[in-house]
Amino acid sequence: MAAPRFVERLNDQIAYEFAAQQQYIANAVYYDAQTLPRLAAFFYAQAVEERNHAMMMVRYLLDADARVSIPGVAAPETEFADIVAPVALALEQERRVSDQIAALVGVARDESDYLSEQFVQWFLKEQVEEVSTMSSLLAVVERSEDAPMFVEDFLAREHGQTGQTDPTAPAAAGGVV
Questions:
Q1: Residue 155 and residue 39 in contact, taking contact as beta carbons nearer than 8 Å
Q2: For 64-113, where are the alpha helices, taking DSSP H only?
Q3: Domain holding 139: CATH number?
Q4: Quick check: is 28 in a domain?
Q5: In contact, 30 and 143? CB cutoff 8 Å
Q6: How many domains is the chain partitioned into structurally?
Q7: DSSP, res 164
Q8: Separation of alpha carbons 163 and 143, rounded Å
């Protein structure tokens, strides 16, 4: 059984993951409206990934016979000053999530909840990748703000063949990943 304090914090994290999903959809819609299809596709895919993270957490709580709370989330930011702003926001969000996941590890460790700590380890690794990806994308977008097709080319070259699943990823509720 997961420690009650960990369950509470993981339910909070589920809300953060769903909020991230909504923000990434808003980012994607912004880029779609700007006729930047690769940036849009990148953020639509990120939204699915965030949703899957939330569902992995739901699955863990269900498997641990713990209470699951599916929260409402605040509306995402939808107005952006330029093509840099959504990526900058995404990097800020990924850094915040990294801190939240690290705090979850701390709670599990403080509660001697080793099973929950083991579960959260995968998310730590994932956050290193997410922050790195967003940092790189932000650097490219900042350099190419006046020539957004360079960003589109970068994404085609560097992120064109995604869809690989991580065999070490936790199972998601509903079996969808």
A1: yes
A2: 85-110
A3: 1.20.1260.10
A4: yes
A5: no
A6: 1
A7: -
A8: 27
- The residues, ordered by sequence, that sit 6+ positions from 105 with a Cβ below 8 Å of its Cβ are 117, 120, 121, 124
**Of 73, 86, 75, 92, whose CA–CA distance to 30 is shortest?**
86
Per-residue pLDDT of 97-140, as tens digits, reads 999 999 999 999 999 999 999 999 999 999 999 999 999 999 99
pLDDT at 149 over 80: yes
Check: CB of residue 3 under 8 Å from CB of residue 108: yes
| Structural domain for 100, as ranges | 4-69+79-159
- Where b means 16+ CB within 10 Å and e means fewer, 92-110 reads ebbeebbebbeebbebbee
Rounded distance, CA 32 to CA 169, Å? 30
Backbone phi, psi, residue 74, to 5°: -70, 155
Report DSSP state, residue 171: P
